[in-house]
Design goal:
With 165 residues, this protein is α+β, with helices and mostly antiparallel strands. It is built from one helix and eight strands. The radius of gyration is 23 Å and the shape is globular.
C-alpha cells in the first residue's frame, strides 16, 4: 500500500511540476514578445541611414540621426529634395522625422503609425515589429497591409555618431 501511495504521489508531483513549467513558459511567451524593444538605433536595409526610435508622447517616433553620406555632390547637407511639397524640400535629411504615431499592439507589434520615404517623397501607413531574428521589420502600405513594401532594419554593428547636435 505504501509503495502504491509513494508511486501515486511521485506521478502527481511529476505531472504538477510539468504543468507548472508549461504554465510558466506560456506566461513568459507574451512577455518575451513585448520585451523586444524597438527603441534605439536601427540601420535601414540599404545601410545609408541610421534611424533613432524613441517615445514622443505616448507613441513612438523615429528620426534620421545618421547618414553614411550626409553631404550631396555640392558638399552641402542633404535635403528632402523628393518631397512633393516644394516648401518642404529644403528640410535637412539629418534630423528628419520619418516615423510617427506608433502605438503598441499585440505580440510586440507596433501599429497605427506612418513612415515617410525620403527617396520617393511619399508617406505611408506603417506597422513594425522586432522579429525572432532580432531585426526590425517595417512595413509601409496604402490602405491595407497587403498593398505595400517591407523593409528590414538591423541594429548597428558599431555605435553611430549622430549627424545632428
Amino acid at each position: 500500500m505504501q509503495a502504491i501511495l509513494n508511486t501515486g504521489f511521485k506521478n502527481f508531483f511529476v505531472h504538477f511540476v510539468f504543468l507548472l513549467a508549461l504554465a510558466c513558459f506560456a506566461w513568459a511567451g507574451p512577455a518575451r514578445a513585448q520585451s523586444q524593444n524597438v527603441q534605439g538605433w536601427w540601420v535601414d536595409g540599404s545601410g545609408k541611414a541610421g534611424i533613432f526610435i524613441a517615445p514622443c508622447g505616448e507613441q513612438l517616433c523615429g528620426k534620421i540621426e545618421w547618414l553614411r553620406e550626409p553631404l550631396n555632390k555640392a558638399g552641402k547637407p542633404k535635403t528632402d529634395i523628393h518631397n512633393s511639397d516644394p516648401a518642404l524640400r529644403p528640410r535637412l535629411l539629418c534630423g528628419l522625422q520619418i516615423l510617427g504615431g506608433f502605438t503598441p499592439g499585440d505580440n510586440g507589434k507596433w501599429r497605427g503609425g506612418w513612415i515617410y520615404d525620403p527617396e520617393s517623397g511619399n508617406t505611408y501607413k506603417s506597422v513594425m515589429h522586432v522579429g525572432g531574428d532580432g531585426k526590425l521589420h517595417v512595413r509601409g502600405f496604402i490602405g491595407i497591409t497587403l498593398i505595400g513594401r517591407s523593409a528590414v532594419w538591423t541594429k548597428p554593428a558599431t555605435p553611430l555618431t549622430p549627424c545632428t547636435g
